[in-house]
Amino acid sequence: MVWRYAVILVAGYLLGNISMGLLISRRYHMDIREHGSGNAGTTNVLRTLGWLPSVLTLLGDAVKAFLASMIGYWLVGKMGVFVGGMAAMIGHNWPVFFGFRGGKGMAAALGMVLAIWWPLGLILLAVEILIAGLTGYVSVASIVVSALFPVAVGILFRDSPDLWLYVLFSVIAAFLTIFSHRANIQRLRQGRENRLDFKKIKRRPEGTK
């Protein structure tokens, strides 16, 4: 059984290293980490390159974590979903092949949640979009949704004998995403966090038709 978890961890981490933000930005002859916030995640791609590249980044990063979670499920069951998904989140945030400079884990977390129970993933995504739209702060939306995730898992698996393990893993996953937003939290406290102005988002990257 130990070797199965080892496979899940390695496979999940390596899948997490597939940084869609970096790959897509290289299509436009740039490194997304050298622009905007310096992050390789969906939001910075949205600010820098526009809607389509950001949607592709979100989908790609979610799919890799979903696959990592499903590998975990196939090898050890429900617990493997959390292990594989979190390994992908770690690989996404700190990719060894890209100098440990990746995203903040929200898209990867979405992929894991979709593997756990897809309606929950869609609900949390809707909540994130709603909060971001109302406040203009994607970071606030991400932090709130991360905090809601362990609560949702506690409700979803309340009758499971492994409830405490599921909640523990979800708390760790929430901590990873909130920890990755520590700079945003500092800027929010100082009143320096940038709002997302949807009117200024490019419909297409510069240099494209």
Automatic annotation (TrEMBL):
Per the similarity annotation, which family is this? Belongs to the PlsY family.
Top class in the EC scheme: transferase
Q: Does the keyword Lipoprotein apply?
A: no
Q: In which pathway does it act?
A: Lipid metabolism; phospholipid metabolism
InterPro entries documented for this protein: G3P_acylTferase_PlsY (IPR003811)
One GO molecular function term of this record is: acyl-phosphate glycerol-3-phosphate acyltransferase activity
Tell me where it resides.
Answer: Cell membrane
**So what does this thing catalyse?**
an acyl phosphate + sn-glycerol 3-phosphate = a 1-acyl-sn-glycero-3-phosphate + phosphate
Protein name, as recorded:
Glycerol-3-phosphate acyltransferase
Fill in the subunit field for this protein.
Probably interacts with PlsX.
Q: Name one GO biological process term.
A: phospholipid biosynthetic process
According to its UniProt entry, the function of this protein is described as: Catalyzes the transfer of an acyl group from acyl-phosphate (acyl-PO(4)) to glycerol-3-phosphate (G3P) to form lysophosphatidic acid (LPA). This enzyme utilizes acyl-phosphate as fatty acyl donor, but not acyl-CoA or acyl-ACP.
Question: Which species is the source of this protein?
Answer: Candidatus Pullichristensenella excrementigallinarum
Its chief place of residence is membrane
Give the transmembrane ranges: 6-24, 73-94, 106-127, 134-157, 163-180
